[in-house]
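Contributing new records

If you add data, match the layout below exactly. Sequence lines come first and carry their own label; structure lines follow with theirs. Keep one chain per record. Anything else will be rejected by the validation script.
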Amino acid sequence: MKLAVIGLGVRMGYLLNEVFRPADPQLRVVGVIDPDKKKARARLTPTEGRSVKFCSSVRELLKQTKPDAVAIGSRCDLHTPYAVELLAEGLPLYLEKPISTSIAQAEELEKAAGTTTSKIVVSFPLRMSPLCRKVHEMIGTGVLGTAEHLLGVNYVPYGNVYFDSWYRDYQTTQGLFLQKATHDFDYLSYLAGAPIVRVAAMLSRDRVYRDSSRRKNDRDQSALFYDRLGTPETGMNEDSSSALLEFANGTQGVYTQVFYAKRDAAARGSTISGRNATISFDWYQAKIKLVRHHEPFTETISADSNLSHFGGDEALGRNFVDVVKNDAESLSPLVAGLQSVYACLAARESAHTGRFVQVRQVGGMGSSRRNGKSHHRVADHADAPGR
């Protein structure tokens, strides 16, 4: 495979060398778009470092290198512009999340996807992890009856990365629903077997993580101060955020993410309940627990631990190589990325307005239409849809 890379930073460097190359040992990076050529070159093999072409535009990249596929790992606000330009070429793409950072971007990407032959693998490794796939398989056997309720939690032990690195730039990231919950909304929809159609959310900001310019006048010595975090008025990442979720099949869900957890407080996983049983799993514990409600049996399944994104990266890497070389179907397709973005944007809107928000659906469903134009509709309790 001749691969071109847009944005060869830490994350894409890891994927390239620890995920894509093991899946295709003959893979060769032929072109790169990245403003930091020195660091990008250091993430390549010595042979690639000497021969790779650094380009300044997609047009130059394609003309000079003629790649078989492109991996996009640029800053978040550039994912959509690069993807839209490349979709016109029909090449297979590996696209980092969040695939868009606004409704306008997501709609532009969805429109471009409707006229392309490109196959896209979205970077949603959680749905591909062995633990999540096993739970999906168990739900499919009917052991729960039907999945009626999902609880998703993400207590992030490395949350400071969103405040002491470039992730703190809200104008680039647009908040932590898009940065983190996009993963979780995707795997929760995967387990529920339906997209999210309605959401109510809240968030907290400026309580734990604060801008260092306020340190002198701040009496709360427990606050964590960092430079250039912004303010609630200008935009800043949240300390924690939560959402109520309604899925298209009537299943309900609750999700919460916390960014100041440390050490053994780390937790990421879900509890799925039906009439007949409850399944719970946690990626950090690498365990699945099945409690049968009407029988005196509880079962525990252990999985391998210490895998990147809990084993999902490796599975996505193999799928990407298979898409490029064998025209296989993407196991984490663009529609999943779009649906997650629409849900995350609805959650962020709800958190700022204090209202339930209908989630735009891929294809335009779930949005109101006025004068032939689609609008992201805000619903209050009075006009919420029936069950």
